[in-house]
Here is the input.
Amino acid sequence: MKKMKTLGAREIISFPLLGIDEIEARVDTGAKSSSLHAEKIEEIEKKGVSFVAFVVPAAGNRRFETDEFTVRRIKSSNGQIERRYAVQITAMLYGEKYKTDFTLASRPTMKFPVLLGRRILKNNFVVDVSRFNLSHNYKK
Here is the structure.
């Protein structure tokens, strides 16, 4: 059996392909999907191919585009069903890369710009809610 690492209730993680070295994330075992704060989220078409375009404030307001996305129906924290785009992003925890889907959501009033949900946690991590920044402290 694979030895799982422990995450705390919140962690500082990295998204190397987005140019984000450190960003605070809330570990949310109640959420199925992980989520990233993004703005100006739109579906666009180029030469007959659909792309999702979005701006990530934590990446210096850089705009990203990808044709590798899905559309999901997500129940938000207030219980409402929302239509959200999901893109695969590589996150760094404990110095290791974990590629998983992140839904794109406008979260400007939320304390944490990133939520880590059960899909990335499953088979990789256990959560100790009494602790925090375990992955980041390991990096030091």
Q: What stands out?
A: The helical segments are 118-121, 134-139. Residues 5-139 form a domain with the Cathepsin D, subunit A; domain 1 fold (CATH 2.40.70.10). Residues 134-139 form the longest helix (6 residues).
